[in-house]
Amino acid sequence: MRILVTGGAGFIGSAFVRNILRNELKSSVEKLTILDSLTYAGNLQNLENTLSDKRVSFVHGDIRDRSLVDRLVSSHDQIVHFAAESHVDRSLHSPSTFIETNIVGTASLLDALIIHAGKRMIYVSTDEVYGSVAEGRSTEKDPLNPSSPYSSSKASGDLLCIAYASSFGIDVLVTRCCNNYGPYQFPEKIIPLFVTNLLDDCALPIYGTGVNIREWIHVDDHCRALSLLLVKGKAGQIYNIGSNFTISNLALSQKLLMMLSKDDQYIEYVADRSGHDFRYALDSTKIIDEIGFVCDIDFAAGLDRTIAWYRHNEEWWRPLKAGSTRVR
Ligand code: NAD
Fold first, then answer.
1. Fewer C-beta neighbours within 10 Å, C or N terminus of the chain?
2. Closest ligand 1 atom, residue 43 Cα
3. What does each of the 328 residues of the chain score in pLDDT, given as a tens digit?
4. Does residue 220 line the site of ligand 1, with CB under 6 A?
5. Residue 127 CA: which ligand 1 atom is closest?
6. Is 85 a catalytic residue?
7. Residue 150 annotated to the active site
């Protein structure tokens, strides 16, 4: 396998690189190239220990650079497309970057797949494209109903992938995963933000009343699902990737407070996020039945490991938190 990983210096992309170099596919990886423009969210430190592998190389570049993308797609067989602007709050401040990277950038990869036949691409999308579901769980057949510039730009990528697969016969799969957590997640997302705030004895800013519900999966489980889909997934198909574990933001915060030996006084309610979806929940029956994927990592155990990681890797998150433009 010659694999191109876009956005491989980000949170999930770097976890995917680490995972595929040590899981059951490791011996079939002939070459792995990471294409990343190193935005504020991209960090070469996320790839330490993997860049020394002779099969791995890093290309500093933008997915919107069509000649670069064309050249890289032509020399690989499998593309796992993570590169994106990924933070909802930032999308409320500057939607145009999201449109540029998440839609125009995805189109540039799809156009290269038309020219270079016989390649497979996984487009890594999100449960947020379904919008808020008051009850029940979203299946792959449900209509898209995104409500933020982030989720609508991702949903646009989903639609482009599905349309290109059907119009041009290219081999593209779309995955829609729930919220990820784990090591190396930029400390603006709720779990690393709250864990690092508590390590610093600071408050947890909770949007609205904290009733919003999210489904959570450990990043290693997500990456294992993607590896399975590279081999077993069917072209043109959409796969939800969930854990079935949902929790409100308030209950999650209380869990973190307990795990870090703090009390409720650290909770600070702040004005709600504009257009804040109430609940996401995925029906993951398809990937379980057709691909045989089941989550391994229980939320409490995964969270415990994640807290320990942030506790022991201050030198990773402190400079990022100090240099990051606060959007929350
Ligand atoms: P991230 O923000 O941590 O990483 C994104 C990476 O993409 C960064 O390394 C960044 O430098 C790179 N990038 C951004 N714009 C680029 C461009 N124009 N060209 C090349 N590289 C560029 O994001 P993440 O949390 O790792 O998410 C990865 C993917 O998974 C995204 O597509 C996201 O929509 C999707 N996803 C994320 C979650 C989650 O909970 N984090 C859940 C479901 C789906």
1. C
2. 9
3. 999 999 999 999 999 999 999 988 889 999 999 999 999 999 999 998 899 999 999 999 999 999 999 999 999 999 999 999 999 999 999 999 999 999 999 999 999 999 999 999 999 999 999 999 999 999 999 999 999 999 999 999 999 999 999 999 999 999 999 999 999 999 999 999 999 999 999 999 999 999 999 999 999 999 999 999 999 999 999 999 999 999 999 999 999 999 999 999 999 999 999 989 999 999 999 999 999 999 999 999 999 999 999 999 999 999 999 987 555 5
4. no
5. 43
6. no
7. yes
Atom nearest to 185 CA in ligand 1: 3
Q: Considering the entire predicted model, what is its pTM?
A: 0.97
- Answer yes or no: is the C-beta of 310 below 6 A from any ligand 1 atom: no
Q: Which of 245, 213, 207 is nearest to 133 (CA)?
A: 213
Q: Catalytic pick from 123, 150, 181, 207?
A: 150
